[in-house]
Amino acid sequence: MISRQTDHAISAMVLGVGAFAHGVAQILKDDGALASTYLTRDYGHFPPSLAGPTFTREAFSSPCLPARQQKVDVVVPMSIDWAQALWAEELLRSRTPIFGPTGAAMKIERERDFARKLCHEFKIRFPKAQVARNRLEAEQILREQPRPYVIKNPLCSPTSPIHTILCESVEDTRSWLQHIDYAEGVFLQEYLGRAEAGHIALVSGGEIYSLVTNQEYKRAFAGDLGVVAGAPLGGLVERDPGDQYGLARELLHPLRPWFRAVNYHGPIQVTAVRRDGKWFVIEYNIRLGVTSGPMILRMLRRPAETLLRTAQNRKLSVEFKDGFNFGCSVTLAGYGYPYVQIRGPQLPIEVTGAFDCDVWWNEVERDAQGRLLATGHRIADVIGLAPTLDTAIANAYANIRKIRCLASYYRPDIGQSLWPPGTV
């Protein structure tokens, strides 16, 4: 993609690993951009290398030098944890546009109680929630306000001592409060049921541009059973610039004054639950997301230019490709998942036919003989995009069945529950 603002191809650097970095970098490359990846974690290094140059933390303590060498126009973070890196200030001083908010604007995801207070200020519905510093305070809250709670870390990070625990009864909550790490306290949010949905938009130039309504299948097994996994096992997106389900109108648009006050520009996702015919915010995220991100970018006509203009806080003209109305993502999970304490050997991956959709490899390497090996718990994300939801789902499943790896599995029921948005 030759930028209409410059006379050269857009150069984009992804900060991330695995399927997200593979997908984003490849889609930007397909759009004509020069794509590279700074590898922020110690796994999932091979897949992004299929789309362009990669740079390790061992060779480069900061992404700033390779970014200068690649003449990067826009940086695309996979996670909010880049802001806690030792090189974060150097990256900000470089003034390279970042596809995502910075500074105080990050608090809407980073600090859960800040999001609660923000919703209260702008009269957006939010479940009852409190922060406790320790187990004694948490148990006192439960005694005084006995209800099931979603247990979260007060600060959002991939390395948080508490990962989200959905408790569906008071007794569930009481049991878990005895077993969590209170190093950063605990955020207790009233559990309002399973009728969740999300909406993803871009904020740029002081305006909100709706992209898709989405669903994430967070539980590990079919029938929405099992634990909430570390990342979703699948997801759906529906092209929705008109916000047909009202999520943006009710839960994002009231925040426009705050977005402008903190100079917010970047993606914003709201995840909400429907209770008694009304949407309640569960949380906000300031990134496209590992499940929905590559689907959204593939649906856009000029993804590289859209990311760059958003990072520059310019007005947008978002255009979608014809026929890409729905997307379905299905994850192929590997040996032991979602119980990541269980480790298996590196296992061979067999591909039995040519793919006719996007397949983004995750914790995968290639050995000296050129064979693919599964090196971790998540093997691939397989993406179907189509004019109809049923066709997108069928396309994803037809392709995931072409991959075989010992003890791997996928959820066979993506789209059979939790859709349309607000239903279970």
Write up what this structure looks like:
The radius of gyration is 21 Å and the shape is globular. Helix 1 runs parallel beside helix 11 and helix 7 runs antiparallel to helix 8 (170-177). The strands form six sheets. An eight-stranded antiparallel sheet has the order 15-14-9-10-13-16-22-19, sandwiched between helices. Strands 3-2-1-4 form a four-stranded parallel sheet, with helices on one face. Strands 5-8-6-7 form a four-stranded antiparallel sheet, sandwiched between helices. It has helices spanning 18-30, 46-49, 64-69, 88-93, 107-110, 112-121, 135-144, 170-177, 247-251, 256-261, 293-299, 303-311, 389-400, and strands at 11-15, 34-38, 54-55, 74-77, 129-132, 149-152, 165-166, 186-190, 196-204, 207-216, 219-221, 225-228, 234-239, 266-275, 278-285, 326-333, 347-348, 350-351, 358-361, 364-366, 372-374, 378-386, 403-404. With 424 residues, it is an alpha+beta fold.
Strand order of the largest sheet: 15-14-9-10-13-16-22-19
Q: Radius of gyration, rounded?
A: 21 Å
What is the number of beta strands? 23
Structural class: alpha+beta
Low-confidence parts, pLDDT < 50 over ≥5 residues? none
Helix fraction? 10-25%
Largest sheet: number of strands, sense, barrel closure: 8 strands, antiparallel
Shape: globular
Portion of residues in beta strands equals: 25-35%
Mean pLDDT: 97
- The termini sit apart by 41 Å
Number of helical runs? 13
